[in-house]
Amino acid sequence: MNTISNDELINKAKSIIKPHEVKHGFVASNCGCSLMTNEGNIYLGVAIDTCSSMGFCAEHGAIAAMITGGEYKIKKIVAVLEDGQILPPCGGCREFIYQIDGDNLETEVIIGENKVVKLREFYSRIHGMKTSDTRKR
């Protein structure tokens, strides 16, 4: 399996950020996401922010690319804004990652330059799930 460092994954996310503004509050590509699957493949995606609910987070774009590639299990993931700020996945993205494959509770989520937590940790804080709980919904 191929593997890359967290810094390399962060740089890949930064490399695809190319903000583009058009009419009516629409902004494309102001946030980039890169993820590495359990097989070591890298998938990228950008956010599309619209003035309606039709937009989506960068994580959705990267996950869609991953599924197109026939994979479902995420080893690690990161999202980066155009100013370089690393941000954790929103609640919707956390749930989306989990729903794609229950084993994704073990996904390493990069939330800072030197800070990584498992997706499971977000659920333990929100839902009272024990970090050792391996049940699937």
Polypeptide structure, described:
- The longest helix has 11 residues.
- The protein is globular.
- It is of the alpha+beta class.
Q: Quick one: CATH class?
A: Alpha Beta
Largest sheet: 7 strands, mixed
Look at the structure and give the mean pLDDT. 90
Order of helices and strands: HEEEHEEHEEH
Cα(first) to Cα(last) distance is: 29 Å
Shape: globular
Say which CATH homologous superfamily is assigned: Cytidine Deaminase, domain 2
CATH architectural name = 3-Layer(aba) Sandwich
> How many separate helices?
4
Structural class per helix/strand content? alpha+beta
**Beta-strand content estimate:** 25-35%
Tell me the CATH topology.
Cytidine Deaminase, domain 2
- pLDDT below 50 for ≥5 consecutive residues: which ranges? 131-137
User: Based on DSSP secondary structure assignment, what is the total number of beta strands?
Assistant: 7
Percent helix among the residues? 25-40%
Q: Key features?
A:
seven-stranded mixed sheet, disordered C terminus, globular
Topology:
Blueprint: H1 6-15, E1 20-21, E2 27-37, E3 42-49, H2 58-68, E4 74-81, E5 86-87, H3 91-100, E6 108-112, E7 115-118, H4 119-127
Parallel strand pairs: 4-6
Antiparallel strand pairs: 1-2, 2-3, 2-4, 4-5, 6-7
Quick summary:
The chain has helices at residues 6-15, 58-68, 91-100, 119-127; strands spanning 20-21, 27-37, 42-49, 74-81, 86-87, 108-112, 115-118. With 137 residues, it is α+β, with helices and mostly antiparallel strands. Strands 1, 2, 3, 4, 5, 6 and 7 form a seven-stranded mixed sheet that branches.
